[in-house]
């Protein structure tokens, strides 16, 4: 029972850290509270299960690293794919992608309403963040030659 409470607090802390603005944790807590209340009203499932399902669905195995190469006055970007090894980093990248896709939907609604819609959509496999994940995985798997340099 104690281990389950510890995992819940870790997930809560990660959510607050992702939603934090300008280093103010109170803002992240306020966004989390408003969105969890709205999620509870809209969904029949428990909030934690819905959020976990959304995180699992948007979690990616790959990420793209960009390096800026300078030669004199010219700049070029070198993009290399890499694996995300740790589960905690996978969770953070999934949360950041959910947050980014919620920020993109700039309708007349507040951020927490967009966030709840995105979480519900990603829990049902219909969100923009899942489409971005699939596009990224297809792009990386087409360029498999870069994966041969990865050190296991």
Write up what this structure looks like.
With 152 residues, the protein is of the alpha+beta class. The chain has a single domain (34-143), classed as Orthogonal Bundle (Ribosomal Protein S7), CATH 1.10.455. Helices cover 62% and strands 13% of the residues. The protein contains six helices and two strands. The chain has helices at 2-19, 25-42, 47-58, 87-104, 111-123, 128-142; strands at residues 62-71, 74-83. It has a two-stranded antiparallel sheet. α1 packs across α4 (87-104). The radius of gyration is 18 Å and the shape is globular.
What attributes characterize this protein structure?
single chain, 152 residues, alpha+beta, Ribosomal Protein S7, two-stranded antiparallel sheet, 6 helices, 2 strands
Structure summarized in a few sentences:
The chain is of the alpha+beta class and 152 residues long. 62% of the residues lie in helices and 13% in strands.
Instruction: Give the beta-strand count.
Output: 2
Secondary-structure-derived class: alpha+beta
Give the spatial strand order of the biggest sheet.
1-2
Oligomer type: single chain
- Tell me the domain tally: 1
Q: Quickly count the helices.
A: 6
How much helix, percentage-wise, in residues? 55-70%
Output mean pLDDT.
81
> What is the CATH architecture annotation?
Orthogonal Bundle
| CA(first)-CA(last) distance | 35 Å
The helix/strand order is: HHHEEHHH
Supply Rg: 18 Å
Strand proportion: 5-15%
Given this structure, which CATH class is correct? Mainly Alpha
- Assigned CATH superfamily: Ribosomal protein S7/S5
How would you sum up the major sheet?
2 strands, antiparallel
